[in-house]
């Protein structure tokens, strides 16, 4: 009888160790799997995150990101705590980005700067809500609409908030096509949205596109050295692409490397979302502040766009300002779609992509500025 009791106890200890928080998180993981599989919402990211949540919240399995010696813990410590995964993702991102539209019309770079406005407003709000400086900065970076950048900053100064910040950043990236259109329509008239711009025949030369990642990398890193790992990897990937000499490396960067890192990154993020830590008021606050950050980004961008529209006497479509976030290429597609709704002859994608890639640079610069400020505060 003792044998059977012991056997039954051993076989059911996993079930008896379940807490209500673990059950809730497993359900959340299943919801993410449903969204990724059935609704096709960011499946490349949501599927590993959803499965990671389920595995990490199963008691006694040792598969959470905090379980010492577990396989996911090893990936978490070597890939996220060392900032390796975000940097590797930026190599792939750089290999995918074409800075040609921005170089052909450099004026759109100013929209990339305006698209970071929400970061600084959200920082003030987060501090006002009582978040510590490092946590407030990490939450504010959600406004960059750039998942790897948000992970990079949070891994430095708010590791305990990393799961919520990561989920919020990637969720809002995928929701940009829903968040931005109503803001754009509320702030612009149909006449402004219907503004035609040249289709983009002007092209940047091969030499300019080849020199850009070198010059931009040197200048931006000298200005904001705290962002060197991200900016350096971004420009490395882009230089590989523009060189035309290493097709195999470009192919690996765009596909194998990016997909593999995304898989491990999603799994680690999911496995770090433990019920006891994730189901707190801070999580709700992070999601709310992240949404406000993106709203402020869009508002600031459109306001600048309206100013440029006025100064150019109606030659610049104000919607381009909304593409200044680094949600690449979602924001550019939103601007193109809204432009064609207002005027079927409108073709804004070339200019919007330029502003969007400018936003990618702007997000790294904003993160570097935040990290520099934080390092000075820590020293003091």
Describe this structure in words.
- With 380 residues, this protein is an all-alpha fold.
- The chain folds into 2 domains: 14-59; 97-247 and 272-379, no CATH class.
- It has 19 helices and no strands.
- It has helices spanning 2-16, 20-37, 43-56, 71-80, 84-96, 100-104, 109-114, 117-128, 133-140, 147-157, 162-187, 190-193, 206-223, 228-243, 247-271, 275-278, 281-311, 330-342, 349-379.
- Helix 10 (147-157) crosses helix 11 (162-187) and helix 11 packs parallel to helix 18.
- The protein is globular, with a radius of gyration of 22 Å.
- It starts with a helix and ends with a helix.
- The model has no long low-confidence stretch (mean pLDDT 87).
Per-chain topology:
Layout: H1 2-16, H2 20-37, H3 43-56, H4 71-80, H5 84-96, H6 100-104, H7 109-114, H8 117-128, H9 133-140, H10 147-157, H11 162-187, H12 190-193, H13 206-223, H14 228-243, H15 247-271, H16 275-278, H17 281-311, H18 330-342, H19 349-379
Helix pairs in contact: 2-3, 3-15, 4-15, 5-10, 5-14, 5-15, 8-9, 8-17, 9-10, 10-11, 11-17, 11-18, 13-14, 18-19
């Amino acid at each position: 009888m003792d044998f059977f009791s012991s056997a039954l106890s051993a076989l059911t200890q996993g079930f008896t160790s379940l807490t209500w928080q673990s059950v809730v998180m497993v359900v959340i993981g299943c919801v993410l799997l449903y969204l990724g599989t059935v609704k096709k919402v960011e499946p490349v990211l949501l599927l590993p995150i959803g499965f990671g949540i389920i595995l990490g919240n199963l008691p006694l399995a040792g598969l959470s990101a905090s379980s010492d010696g577990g396989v996911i813990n090893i990936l978490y410590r070597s890939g996220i705590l060392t900032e390796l995964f975000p940097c590797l993702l930026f190599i792939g991102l750089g290999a995918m980005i074409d800075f040609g539209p921005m170089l052909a019309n450099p004026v759109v770079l100013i929209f990339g700067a305006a698209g970071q406005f929400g970061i600084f407003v959200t920082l003030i709000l987060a501090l006002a809500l009582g978040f510590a400086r490092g946590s407030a900065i990490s939450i504010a970076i959600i406004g960059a609409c750039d998942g790897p950048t948000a992970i990079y900053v949070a891994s430095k100064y708010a590791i305990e908030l990393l799961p919520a910040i990561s989920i919020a950043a990637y969720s809002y990236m995928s929701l940009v096509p829903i968040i931005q259109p109503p803001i754009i329509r509320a702030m612009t008239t149909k006449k402004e949205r219907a503004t035609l711009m040249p289709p983009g025949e002007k092209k940047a030369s091969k030499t300019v596109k080849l020199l850009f990642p070198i010059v931009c990398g040197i200048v931006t890193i000298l200005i904001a050295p705290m962002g060197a790992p991200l900016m350096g990897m971004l420009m490395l990937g882009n230089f590989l692409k523009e060189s035309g000499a290493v097709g195999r490396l470009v192919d690996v960067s765009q596909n194998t490397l990016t997909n593999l890192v995304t898989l491990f990154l999603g799994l680690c993020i999911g496995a770090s979302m433990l019920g006891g830590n994730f189901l707190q008021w801070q999580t709700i606050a992070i999601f709310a502040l992240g949404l406000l950050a993106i709203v402020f980004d869009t508002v600031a961008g459109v306001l600048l766009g309206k100013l440029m529209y006025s100064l150019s006497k109606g030659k610049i479509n104000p919607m381009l300002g909304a593409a200044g976030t680094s949600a690449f290429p979602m924001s550019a597609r939103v601007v193109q779609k809204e432009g064609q709704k207002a005027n079927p002859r409108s073709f804004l994608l070339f200019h919007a992509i330029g502003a969007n890639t400018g936003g990618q640079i702007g997000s790294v610069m904003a993160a570097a500025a935040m990290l520099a400020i934080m390092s000075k505060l820590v020293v003091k």
